[in-house]
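new request in #modeling-help
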Amino acid sequence: MLTVAVMLVGCGRGGDDDASPDLEPGAAIVVQGRAGLVFHDLSTSGTLVFPGSTAGDLPVVADEAAIRAASVAVRTWLDTVLSERNEGLTETVSASEVDAAAFARAFGVDGPSTDGVLDTQVASATYLIEIASLGTPGWALARVESQLVAAADPTTEIGRRLDSFVFTIDEAGAVEFIALEVAP
Amino acid sequence: VSNRTRRSVVMVIVGALVVLPLVGLMAMERVTAVGPATDRPLAILLLGSDAGPPRDDDTLTGRADGFQLLFVSAERDRATFVSFPRDSWVPVAGLGDNKINACLTRGPENCVSTVENAFGIEIDAYFVTSMWGFADAVNEFVGCELGDPELTRSCTRGLTVDVDFTCSANCGGFAITQRGVQQVSGFEALTLARNRAQRAAGDFSRSQSQAELLAIAHAEMQAEGSIARMMDALRILRRHSVTDLTLPQLTRLGLDAMRLDPANVERILAPSRIGTVGAASVVFLNDPVYDIVAEAAATGRLPEEFRSR
């Protein structure tokens, strides 16, 4: 499969440096993940669907600006959700069509509650955002690796987890969250 | 080496550093949640064109020798394939009474109209691929090296199929050297989808094989239960076929497929009989096929008297 890899790195704060040593135990961390972008061209150009030089075999020009904009929208959405998670909230997920219960259970969130912060927090995250397009982007798969820390000691990593989020992207560039796969 | 090239190389390396640690974390128990299904059943037309690679003509104006209808229930918990022999004699849109595969000579939309008019149902989407497009898609799905079917291929896995015949060269695709349960690449899958000379039921057998291969591919994808694998499958499907679905629609269809238990996928060959029209050998559809299509379109299931066949 013809895959063009375009990386957006250093677009946000991330890594261990994100966890401020001045945080008091229990303070919610605002997540700004690092993002990598992989772009998949889904046109039939170069496949064995059409013989060469027929109309269906013509390359489709990728709208790079739209792809980057979709990537930013996905990254912003993930930042919001992980930051909400650190506050014990799932409001952004709950507002989607997706059943938020699985997310809430897996992430140790009880629902839209603000009763203090969680025992663990996501100190930082890395997003691998795969966007598929036929000229304009049509869907995104974000693989999210989260660094977990104890709320009482946000400078010490206690684990990592990998989750996947799926989004559709309409012709106007609107990004909609439609599915997730969360690790235990 | 230009600065642009160096930047690209650096970016790809950085990308690999981001990706590889993620790959190492893939083997974990998963919890999946997806949005609700829509409230109406789906009817999808799946066409295999006899044109396009390896032939020179256009995939989208050939003859639809692979002709499958897939119905999915509104709840997305049931699905049924109805397989049509290519010589099924029906009123073809714009062509009068004709073999059903002729509908594609006027494009896939004409096949949609043909089915809608013949059976009184609404088709939601179509997919069309060529012979090599199909082989390529299967090869990619199961991890086989791509290339000329005459070359020896190398596969990391295959579709697990129970094969009931053998054939040598020129039998529809790649030679099949043994009977029984085996893992096949896209090349043998193409043979299974095309070969009729070596099978007692000829065109009927290959028509059933086409649906069986699709059901097996679904079961293998579903067994892995990974959203990433499903998205891989969607990419492969879209790259190796032509469809009128938008990418967001295709994404939702893929998620529906993840929820569908393969045990709830039924298959049936359209009840029919061989006959002639003038000098042409054709297949006449028997009356029950209309009830079968109507029931499947409404519920995603076969009528009770046709189940478990």
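bot summary: The first strand of chain A starts at residue 3 and ends at 5.
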